[in-house]
Amino acid sequence: MGGLPWGGSEAMWFAVATHAINQGDKVFVSVYDWGSPNQKIKYLQQSGVKINFRKRFNAEATTFEKIVRFVKNRKPALNKDYQSIVDFKPDTVFISQGDSFDLAIHHKALHTLLRNNNIPYSFICHNHEQFGFIPSKEIYPGALEIFKNAEHVFFVSNRQWQLTERRLASKITNGVITWNPLSIVVPDAALLWPDDETAQMAIVANIAGSKGHDTAFEALSSPEWKQRKWILNIYGNGEGIAYLKDLTFFYAIADKIKFHGHVADIVEVWQKNHLLLIPSAGEGLPISLVEAMACGRAAAVTDVGGNTELITQNKTGFIAVSPTTEAFAAVMENAWKEKENWEQLGKNAFDKINAVLEKKPGEKIYKLLKT
Fold first, then answer.
1. Which contiguous run of DSSP H or E holds residue 106?
2. Fewer CB within 10 Å of terminal CB in the chain, N or C?
3. Domains of the chain, residue spans
4. What is the layout of strands, in order, in the sheet containing 230-235?
5. Tens-digit pLDDT profile for residues 113-165
6. pLDDT the model gives residue 98
7. CA-CA-CA-CA torsion sign (210, 211, 214, 220)
8. For the chain, what percentages of helix, strand and coil (3-state, to nearest 5) are there?
9. What is the distance between the alpha carbons of residues 313 and 336, in angstroms, rounded to a whole number?
10. Which helix (H) or strand (E) element contains residue 272?
11. Which DSSP symbol is given to 194?
């Protein structure tokens, strides 16, 4: 992932790598260089994993840097980062994409090198743009070969799979549905309901990209909402924090928005909060939704990615038909009218997620990569 040092999309490849180590495999990991490695990367290093730190993409590169980048894309063997993967002589390569087409748009030279050296590869697709656009030539027809040649293409929701097929105008017959690993041990029962008369709502997401914090702020800035007793707790870090803090003053709701940064203990989050908000414009399947439901909390979500594969209107949560402010404001009005039922909806969500929860997705992917 190029936008932040770590995020929900990193959990899966880390789980696969960790399981591979435990099976006695040799593992090579190639990640972007963010300076001081985080704890998970350090853990892999201490476990004997060889780490290749790649230079991050520079949008403001000099002319010389752009020429070098151009040559490397045309001559993959000159790219030391890609060549180091080949030199490791892997039995298989697993590629984690921030969205569905990173490999096609940014790393096609890697695909060329893998094919030239007859190295099997699989990849996972994470975030996906929800709404229509004419795909660039890198996607259609450029990505067709990349998807066709993969051993496995992993998706985190059925909606994401369907939208990717639409982008490619082609069926993906080597696709597999999986979920990202949870960062919590799933409780045996829904957490106790927070004893707070003020409605405590939460957005749990990196503060970058199209997570929709700004949409939620605008939806909650109406005169009616300003008169109600609620707090919106923001959990996460990212480049957008300063902007969002200013936006709370712009909408005159700074007293109702609380920024907590990254909180490692998700159970602690849901011991305090009543309702999850996911106002995103694009998702694969947000792991924050799965974790909230596993703790016994309902959610108000936009109809993007796999959200509606888990949320049923007025049963396990509330669904906005689109990620516009108008639509999200409407769903929040509906949610507020049903506020006395949030606890029951949370229990319904707990039952729903426990019926479908994938327990060890990292091991599942590992087994598929080994066959």
1. helix 102-106
2. C
3. 10-182+359-370, 199-356
4. 257-261, 230-235, 199-204, 275-278, 298-302, 317-320
5. 999 999 999 999 987 777 778 899 999 999 999 999 999 999 999 999 999 99
6. 85
7. positive
8. 45, 15, 40
9. 14
10. helix 266-272
11. P
